[in-house]
């Protein structure tokens, strides 16, 4: 999936929210997570590309760029969506990424992808938010994720195949 007219690109450790006839897209989701939120009534959506699970490893970086970490980026994503009119009870959450990256398939000593997804699930659970769908895991899988803000459709391209979450 290359950029198309109307796409707003979300970089690594970045976050964007928008409404209207546009799409949000992020590339190269390996162990990182792409997290989308969409409110079908307010027609507000957001996409967060997080790299690491826990901001406790570097509070300074987290203060400068909360989108780098799951535990600081996800709350920011929700707060900013609320500021644009989204409501918690209507928000649809989808996620992709979280791949394993080791020298061989079962060797991933840091398990960043797995830890990112676990941190996200913990945050959502603690805040009574359901995860609608996900495409996570796999070994050395790179994904492209796109959120259509008109329909709320989320597509993921990995290994030459495009699927809808």
UniProtKB/TrEMBL annotation:
<dbReference type="InterPro" id="IPR005659">
    <property type="entry name" value="Chemorcpt_Glu_NH3ase_CheD"/>
</dbReference>
<comment type="similarity">
    <text>Belongs to the CheD family.</text>
</comment>
<dbReference type="Pfam" id="PF03975">
    <property type="entry name" value="CheD"/>
</dbReference>
<dbReference type="InterPro" id="IPR011324">
    <property type="entry name" value="Cytotoxic_necrot_fac-like_cat"/>
</dbReference>
<keyword id="KW-0145">Chemotaxis</keyword>
<dbReference type="GO" id="GO:0006935">
    <property type="term" value="P:chemotaxis"/>
</dbReference>
<comment type="function">
    <text>Probably deamidates glutamine residues to glutamate on methyl-accepting chemotaxis receptors (MCPs), playing an important role in chemotaxis.</text>
</comment>
<keyword id="KW-0675">Receptor</keyword>
<protein>
    <recommendedName>
        <fullName>Probable chemoreceptor glutamine deamidase CheD</fullName>
        <ecNumber>3.5.1.44</ecNumber>
    </recommendedName>
</protein>
<dbReference type="InterPro" id="IPR038592">
    <property type="entry name" value="CheD-like_sf"/>
</dbReference>
<dbReference type="GO" id="GO:0050568">
    <property type="term" value="F:protein-glutamine glutaminase activity"/>
</dbReference>
<keyword id="KW-0378">Hydrolase</keyword>
